[in-house]
Amino acid sequence: MNRLSDIGTIKDILSRHGFTFSKSLGQNFLINPSVCPRMAELSGAGEGVGVIEIGPGIGVLTNELCLLADKVVAVELDKRLLPVLDETLAEYDNVKIINDDVLKLDLNKLIAEEFPGKEVVVCANLPYYITSPVIMKLLEDKLPVTAITVMVQKEAAQRICADIGSRESGAVTVSVNYYAEPKLLFGVSAGSFMPAPKVDSAVIRLEVRKEPPVSADEEKFFKVVKAAFSQRRKVISNSLSAGLKMEKSAVTEILSQAGVSPNARAETLKLEDFAAIAALL
């Protein structure tokens, strides 16, 4: 099935299976033939490697992953796509499709059962509406994976890969950097999809850290991060006071001990600053 990026082929397959696109599931299938081979290669898929794919669609990226990896397990929520995938992936014996919601799956259990003794990576073209929840689940579940390579909305990619302490950074930037080292790989135009979304996309790679770069009580650390960015236009003393429901004087004292100006803004803080504040709570 090497013509899965051809519009005519896609329309023919979907028509035969009576498939129509679901806006609620954010379905946009890739028709740019150069994107998926590049994504699969940069994902780390190869000999001795198992791949988890999320939302395979009609299997364009899945095909490329199957050519490189020992085994691919693709999680697809839309059961209408199962017969489509049976057809488009028929030539491969190293792929398994699971009809489930990835946000509800026990991925640690899946990896233990499907990829014993293998290095594991994640590679996916993520629907825009679940980008952050999926990425954070993959990281927070502390899966035994080495890297996560995903296509997301361009704006989300820029925010995730922004430098911490820059104006572009946000809560997701800090959260992702705690667990992984993000890197922006390449952009993908809206015209690369059918139907075409209203915005461009980008492929990012998250190199999963063996250990966090700072020592912190995770619950307190992420509580501080969430509070700090909850009112990002306000100075840090005000946003933390409101977000943590603490007296401003107490917050100011903590910031002083952590070496952070009460008039700083959340996007200017480093990982070490958030960890220092969390340690003093």
What would you say this structure looks like, in words?
- The chain is of the alpha/beta class.
- The protein folds into 2 domains: about 5-210, Rossmann fold; about 220-280, rRNA adenine dimethylase, C-terminal domain (Helicase, Ruva Protein, domain 3, Orthogonal Bundle), CATH 1.10.8.
- The protein contains 12 helices and 9 strands.
- It has helices at about 5-15, 35-40, 60-70, 80-90, 105-115, 130-140, 155-160, 170-180, 220-230, 235-245, 250-260, 270-280, and strands spanning about 30, 50-55, 70-75, 95-100, 120-125, 145-155, 180-190, 195, 200-210.
- Strands 4-3-2-5-6-9-7 form a 7-stranded mixed β-sheet, with helices on both faces. Strands 1-8 form a two-stranded antiparallel sheet.
- Helix 4 links the parallel strand 3 and strand 4.
- Helix 2 packs across helix 3, helix 6 packs parallel to helix 8 (about 170-180) and helix 9 packs across helix 12 (about 270-280).
- The longest helix is centred in the last third of the chain and has 13 residues, at about 220-230.
SSE layout:
Blueprint: H1 7-16, E1 29-30, H2 35-42, E2 49-54, H3 60-68, E3 71-76, H4 82-88, E4 95-99, H5 107-114, E5 119-125, H6 131-140, E6 147-153, H7 154-160, H8 171-179, E7 180-188, E8 193-194, E9 201-208, H9 218-230, H10 236-244, H11 248-258, H12 271-280
Give the tags:
281 residues; alpha/beta; Rossmann fold; Helicase, Ruva Protein, domain 3; 2 domains; seven-stranded mixed beta sheet; 40% helix; 19% strand
